[in-house]
Each structure stands twice: as structure tokens, then as C-alpha cells.
Amino acid sequence: MTPKSIVLVSGGMDSCVAAAIAAQKGESAFLHVNYGQRTEGRELKAFNDIADFYCVKERLSVDISHLRAIGGSALTDRKIEVPKGDLGKSEIPITYVPFRNAHLLAIAISWAEVLGAHEVYIGAVEEDGSGYPDCRREFFDAFEKAASLGTRPGSGISIITPLIKMRKSDIVKKGLALGAPLPLTWSCYRESRLACGECDSCLLRLRGFAEAGVEDPITYRITSKDQETRP
Q1: Has this prediction a pTM greater than 0.90?
Q2: ∠ at Cα 112 (155, 171), nearest 5°?
Q3: Were 155 and a residue from 92, 101, 151, 175 both cysteine, which residue would form a disulfide, CB within 3.0 to 4.6 Å?
């Protein structure tokens, strides 16, 4: 059976919920990209766990570790420390991986064209992007147009961003409503055993669960309560 969609699954909560949304419409193929990030192995495990949960037959994991060689991001360059999160900042953070989503989408669209799938799902969230320029819907609209020009006539591949305008708390609620396997996901930028509880990604996730009134099912080295009691 031809998959109706390709879902980019990083292993994080957002991509897991996007996968749950895609699953409502039919069979999907799951794509994971290793790009030299610090938590590459842990994210790959989360990807496979989520794919197993959804009994995904078509799954592909690819390597673009040249992004580590290019550097310029705390996620890929070990000489740049992943800073403690600050959700009040508006400038582009050092965790931005230059033009990463373009690389991910190019692979997904290539695979979609081969498989005959007409939709590519990506769990991008403008709130989560913290100013990342490649997490805006305008970017995805432009990339979709480029894909239309650069693929075979009739390919008709759309880029679906079902979470793009949602707050993290709404994503938590959506995931719970759909029965998404949130305990299998991994969001931390820094660590692979216990989530650090301090990076932007952890803070956004913790805030989302707190606002949703639900306990986060993963374990943190530092929790929001710990942070509140620090001098």
C-alpha cells in the first residue's frame, strides 16, 4: 500500500503529535534525520520507539552529519555550549542549526516523490522555534512552491504543518487526545540519559505540560520546582 504521507519524526514531542495527526488520515512512512546533533543516538531511539508504536513499515533513517562539519550551532558544535534556556528572549538562539529544515524537507520530498506520497508532515512550531527563521509558515510555503517546480509534473506534494500556530500546552492536550505515545519522546538538547530541564527545549516542554495541567511522563535531572527553589 502506498503511504499517504511522509512524516518527519525527530523523536520529539511535536513530531510525535504530528505523526498522530497524520495517522488519522491513513498509512504514513516515517523519516528520521541524523545531522550530528548532541543527542543523536537518543533521538534515533525515540524515533524507532514511536515508529514501533504506530507499526510503521516504511521507515528511513538518513545521515547528514555534514551539518556538524559546517557547525555554527550549539547543537552540532561541541565547542559551543548549549546555554540555559531563556524563554523571554526574542533573538535567534545559538541552538539554531543553519537552514536545517530545508535539508530535512528536501530529503522528505525526494522520498515522497519516489513513494508516490502527496503530503509531508513536519511538527514545526513557531513558538518552539524561538525565532528560528526556518520554523515559519512562510518558509514552508516557499519550500512547497520550490518542490512543485523541482519535482515531476503531477507530484503535487504539500508540506503540512499541523502544529505551526499552537502553543506547547495545546500540543500536549492534542497528543493526549489522540493517544500519542508522549512517554517515548525526547526533547532535550543537551543530554541523553536524563533530560537536563534547563535548555530552551526542556523549558518549553515543561511549561507546556504545566499549562496543560498534566505531569510530563519523562524524567528530568532538574525540574521546574527545583528551579523555583534555587537562590
Answers
A1: yes
A2: 115
A3: 151
